[in-house]
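U., I forgot to send this yesterday:
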Amino acid sequence: MQITHAEFRDAAGHVTIHREHDSPTIRIDSVLREPGKEQAWMTWDVPATVSNEELFKIAEIVQRRCAGVRGTGSDIHGYFQELQRFQD
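Result:
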């Protein structure tokens, strides 16, 4: 079984993660509800072989863009675990 799509929504924004079957990349799209000084839309194309260290950094950004504030380690870890489902 392979998960190909996931969506996260929270107070500040929305993130969609997508990976086609056997695709070498993971696509991450993020939209902020009220961007202020930040970029409203961000997109990453990440290699499916991304290291856990780099993926955790992405999870930090995804968590902050969804929640609007920097989360605790456990908040970020939840996003990290979900992102790992898309890794090779």
